[in-house]
Amino acid sequence: MDSPLKETRIDGEVAFDGRFLKVARDRIRLPDGKETNREYIKHPGAVVILPVFDDGRVLLERQFRYPLGREFVEFPAGKIDPGEDTLACAKRELQEETGYTAKEWQFICTIHNAIAYSDEHLDLFVARGLVEGEAKLDEGEFLECFTSTVPEMLGMIKSGAITDVKTIIGTFWLEKLMNGTWKPG
Q1: Which member of 21, 123, 149, 178 has the greatest number of CB atoms within 10 A?
Q2: For residues 101 and 35, what is the distance between their CA atoms, to the nearest angstrom?
Q3: Which pLDDT score is estimated for 15?
Q4: Would you say which domain of life the source belongs to (predicted)?
Q5: Can you list the alpha helix ranges (DSSP code H) found in the chain?
Q6: pTM for the full predicted model
Q7: Spatial CA neighbour of 121 closest among 24, 23, 45, 173
Q8: From its phi and psi, is residue 84 left (phi > 0), alpha (psi between -120 and 50) or beta?
Q9: How far apart, in Å, are the Cα atoms of 142 and each of 15, 20, 24, 48, 81?
Q10: Quick one: DSSP state of residue 163?
Q11: Catalytic residues, which ones?
Q12: How would you class 59 by CB atoms within 10 Å of its CB: exposed for 0-12, middle for 13-18, buried for 19 or more?
């Protein structure tokens, strides 16, 4: 049964076709029968890795993000390639960005980080049993890796030093997982 809130696509077009992002412009029918337009970013999806060392410390990255003109503290993450399995993507991104591989992987959840203007989704994974290696950053990618504890990360969230939504949600998940109050799906 359809939701009484459902909007139905009538037709549409690609408004912008970039190397990384595409913007769609659709004509839709609203629940009251009227027509309007929706513009949104088409995104292939991404993964977020929550790398946890045996001592409980967490591996993080510091990276400059051009749209906001400043550095951000983030979990390793990356875009899913066409046809790529999400776990394979998580393993690839962890190694490329940090050099680490992991012996244990656990899917946590899927989040939708920009529902008003994008179809992007992020699959979060915890990675444990970390083994150090050599990073293989993409051309034009620059970042610094460092470690922190979950309590330190919660303090950075509270103070505004961490504002990246995937990192905030991942930190809250880690806190609940580590203290045993949440178990993944």
Answers
A1: 123
A2: 50
A3: 96
A4: Bacteria
A5: 86-98, 150-159, 165-178
A6: 0.94
A7: 45
A8: beta
A9: 31, 18, 30, 18, 20
A10: -
A11: 139
A12: buried
Q: Which two tokens stand for residue 101?
A: 């591989």
What Cα–Cα distance (Å) separates residue 90 from each residue in 16, 18, 49, 152, 156?
A: 28, 24, 6, 24, 25
Show me where the domains of the chain are located: 8-42, 46-178
Q: What DSSP state is assigned to residue 44?
A: -
- Which ranges of the chain have pLDDT less than 70? 1, 185
Q: Where are the beta strands (DSSP E) in 52-176?
A: 58-65, 70-74, 77-79, 101-111, 122-131, 144-148
Structure tokens at 23: 């913007």
Q: What is the pLDDT of residues 96-131, one digit of tens each?
A: 999 999 999 999 999 999 999 999 999 999 999 999
What residues have CB less than 8 Å from 168, skipping those under 6 apart? 157, 162
**Length of the chain measured in residues:** 185
At residue 119, the pLDDT reads 96
